[in-house]
Design brief:
1 helix; four-stranded antiparallel sheet; mainly beta; 25 strands; about 50% strand
């Protein structure tokens, strides 16, 4: 027996189909060209994505704190003022050299790790917290590395099971090995409040590859940033002098957050291209794009390539995994596309 479908039911079915089609939003394309954001005289850009918005923190007011910028799409940025001001802190422990802030969302708060120079002249890492990614951030634990020396570039990585780790750098200014000044990367677990490091520091990397110039008087492995993919830990880092053309990004891999880490044979994965006016790409962070899928590396380059210095600007390029390797489509200076919702 034939079933007869009324006109009303048929129209209702068509409406459901059309509604389903309109619910599927097509991704739009946004075009950009590096550098992005229009800011300079910054360095060490770190981008946090939270509730669909982006927040960028950078070395920006080295005498007393950090600015913050906000964006809806990774390309269009607006300066939002100071996220952290040392003069406003209950304990004024530092004298300057406020470098390399990073912010993570953890336990319904935002935690900033940063480094500065203390009253005794040593660089130290501290933690500040806020209920808002724009700040203001207030110190909750200062000078958390207890070993002698100077320490910079704190990076908090939260593993899949919720365990927090602090990756950081023993700075070459005071770390002298066999007569050479050497920056080394270490890691320690953190407590659940992100106010202390636990156990003993675990050594991870130091300059030893040819491109890292391990024969120079001053050597650098710095700016650690950790990703995890398919059970493998990817430790990104920068090497060479920040104010040289050769400042570049490499990575190492391990099966454990404590290592041992093996450096990639195809390092550096992000390096200069002076033919395009790109000098000293480095000190990176990684964030996910507006499509919630594509990864982007955020890094600085020298604003004036012919005179590399602390005057730097922000860039972004696509980053991806391929056959267990970390790849970057960059550095670029031509038009690029970002998929946005």
């Amino acid at each position: 027996m034939k079933k007869i479908v009324s006109l009303g039911v048929l129209l209702s079915l068509i409406g459901v189909i059309l509604l389903g089609c309109t619910d599927k939003k097509e991704l739009k394309t946004l075009v950009y060209t590096n550098p992005v954001g229009g800011m300079n005289h910054i360095g060490d850009p770190f981008v946090l994505k939270s509730d669909g918005k982006y927040y960028m923190y950078a070395t920006s007011e080295p005498n007393f704190g950090y600015k913050v910028w906000q964006s809806p799409n990774l390309v269009d940025w607006e300066e939002k003022g100071m996220a952290y001001v040392h003069f406003d802190q209950p304990e004024k422990w530092a004298t300057g050299d406020f470098w390399a802030p990073e912010v993570v969302a953890y336990n319904d708060q935002f935690y900033m790790t940063y480094s500065a120079r203390n009253m005794e002249g040593h660089l130290q890492i501290s933690i500040a917290a806020s209920n808002d990614p724009l700040g203001p951030f207030t110190d909750v634990s200062t000078q958390i590395i207890k070993q002698a020396g100077s320490y910079i570039d704190g990076h908090i990585f939260i593993d899949d099971d919720g365990t927090p780790f602090l990756y950081y750098v023993k700075d070459c200014s005071e770390n002298i090995i066999n007569g050479k000044h050497v920056s080394q990367i270490f890691v320690q677990k953190m407590n659940d409040d992100l106010t202390e490091v636990l156990d003993e520091p675990q050594f991870l990397t130091e300059p030893d590859a040819t491109w890292e110039r391990p024969y120079d008087e001053y050597q650098w492995n710095e700016g650690p940033f950790v990703l995890k993919q398919d059970g493998i830990y990817y430790l990104m880092y920068s090497s060479n002098y920040f104010a040289s053309h050769d400042y570049s990004v490499g990575y190492a891999t391990a099966a454990s957050p404590f290592g041992p880490f093996e450096k990639a044979i195809d390092n550096p994965i992000l390096t200069k291209d002076l033919s395009q006016g790109i000098s000293g790409p480095g000190h990176n962070s990684v964030t996910v794009g507006p499509d919630d899928e594509t990864l982007y590396i955020v890094y600085h380059t020298h604003t004036i390539p012919d005179a590399p210095s602390g005057n730097r600007q922000m860039n972004i390029d696509r980053l991806y995994f391929e056959d267990g390797k970390l790849k970057v489509d960059g550095p670029t200076s031509t038009e690029q596309e970002i998929k946005v919702k």
